[in-house]
Amino acid sequence: MNQLLLRSKAMETREETILTRREAVTGCHDRLHGGDMDMTGWVDLPETLNGEELKSLKNAGNEIRHRHSALVVIGVGGSYLGTRACYEALTPQSQGVKLFFAGWNLSGRYHEKLLRELDRHDAALCVVSKSGTTIETTLAFDLLKDYMKKRYGRDFARRVYAVTDPKKGALREEAEKMGYQTFALDENIGGRYSVLTAVGLLPLTAAGYDVEALLRGAAKAENALNTADLSKNDAYRYAVFRNLMFEEGKSIEFFSFTEPEMIRFGDWLKQLFAESEGKDSKGIYPSVIGYSTDLHSVGQFLEEGNPVFFETMITLGHHTIDLTADGHEHGYNRHIDSVAEAVYRVRNEKGTPITRLTLTSLDEEHLGYLIYFFEKACAMSCMLMNVNPFDQPGVEAYKRELRALLSEE
Ligand code: PA5
Question: N or C: which end of the chain has fewer CB within 10 A?
């Protein structure tokens, strides 16, 4: 059965133009798969993540799951967004730790509440930073280490897990000195493409999720999308379509969701597309909306406002739960499906380009497929736009500025 179904009248009407990009797509595909392009370690990762590596991170994840009741994932950007997306979208397969997230903001109020909440748990930390020098992560880690030292004494280091660069960075040095259990991040995989590495797999195992199913789904996508043939590769068709949208002057893409639990997946998508594509004054701004709530607020703009956008709606094909109120012939799922269909129709009537992606089911395997689908589509979309999908000079400039400012103080 197909994991993901794509439906788009807007793409069908542009079919001929889409096919004119065949040669460009083949060129980019060959570069992505050629093995010479930097930061493409994620391309064949789902198939190649080797047995030993997976085994050791699953062992550590299960150790956390059995020994503790809470795990604080400390990280920002690509170091936590994917984990949070999976954590909120999926249902764990077995009892696991509760995940908390720190370092993605610098609010004293937020972190004070978090510490109070931790008092009620047996806590462990998972600090994630590829560079090992990100200020937000470092500051939150310092705060949480302090808490752990006070609560558990010198032994606290046994409760700390670090995911970072295999050789360099302040976090690597500290981890070695303190004896934290560490996991190496592949140097050839950037933060926003790293959810299927220890970055996501370690905390998700600890939280009771089936990470092998996540990888299995991604491997299915890797196989299905490993062709430059546009008639067989929906990720590439969608990437070409996005480029056409950009050329037609559409500067915003609304990712809309009918399942509220998928909204954090939207946050992961925002980073993936904005940080990969927003360069050289190019790129489409990714925005996230949830249905039905936003149909009763920004819905007005979407219907009659400035037509600078197109929409990519992500819905579910199969619902495992349905609810029916007494006296109603149909359950909730019929209603949610009708909302999606109404939106699809109304956008098409108005001439607003909309693509509907239906995920057959919401479980680890299907989400793994969706993650890989978007990673592949995003990389192709950037390359067709002639921007580097894997660097983030703008983010690095902000990091440098913050570091300079803090050292002045
Ligand atoms: O995708 C990226 O490269 C960034 O968003 C990083 O993930 C983010 O800035 C955090 O960096 P680091 O993992 O080095 O702490």
Answer: C
- Beta-carbon neighbour count of residue 33 at 10 Å? 14
Give the DSSP H or E segment for 56: helix 51-67
**Residue numbers annotated as active site:** 275, 296, 399
> Is 320's pLDDT higher than 80?
no
**Closest ligand 1 atom to Cα of 75:** 15
Q: 4-36+214-394: which CATH number, 3.40.1790.10, 3.40.50.10490, 3.10.270.10, 3.40.1190.20?
A: 3.40.50.10490
Residue 138 Cβ contacting ligand 1 at under 6 Å: no
What pTM does this model have?
0.97
Identify the CA nearest to 47 among candidates 209, 216, 190. 216
Structure tokens at 226: 């490993």
Using an 8 Å Cβ cutoff, are 229 and 30 in contact? no
Q: What is the dihedral of CA 242, 35, 42, 358, to 10 degrees?
A: 40
Q: Which two tokens stand for residue 136?
A: 């937000």
The pLDDT tens digits of the residues spanning 307-317 come to 999 999 999 98
Q: How far, in Å, is the centroid of ligand 1 from the Cα of 267?
A: 14
Which residue CA neighbors atom 2 of ligand 1 most closely? 191
Asked if residue 77 has its Cβ within 6 Å of ligand 1, the reply is: yes
Ligand 1 atom with minimal separation from the 164 CA: 13
pLDDT digits (tens, 9 = 90+) for 217-255: 999 999 999 999 999 999 999 999 999 999 999 999 999
186 alpha carbon – ligand 1 mean position (Å): 13
